[in-house]
Here is the input.
Amino acid sequence: MATTETSSAAQSITNHSKIVIIPQMERSVWRFRGQAGHQDLERFLQDLEAALAQRPYQADSERATFLWSNLGSEVRDEFACQGVDRGDKNALLEALRDTYGNRRPLSSLSLAFF
Here is the structure.
């Protein structure tokens, strides 16, 4: 009788036990709005690269979608005016650096031409 109780207890434990898989926490990336300056762009790009490094299995188009989802509406509008392909991660990164990467004052930029 003890073996019957033991086997039913083992079945009860087996039927109710669950395997829990805890996924690796994704690194969060704050939304880049393009208003704070060059240092914020660099921090955003560092956070973005760290987050993408945790996703080595993703295709470039999925990475571009992830990047696009972390851009503010003003940045998206600017890229739409420039005709930047939102499905191309490299084009988005280049446009970010070209558009928001250099925040020197106009007087400093004009001196660069002379």
Remarks:
- The chain has a mean pLDDT of 79.
- The helical segments are 2-16, 38-53, 60-69, 73-82, 89-100, 106-111.
- The chain is about 60% helix and 0% strand.
- Residues 92 and 98 are 10 Å apart (CA to CA).
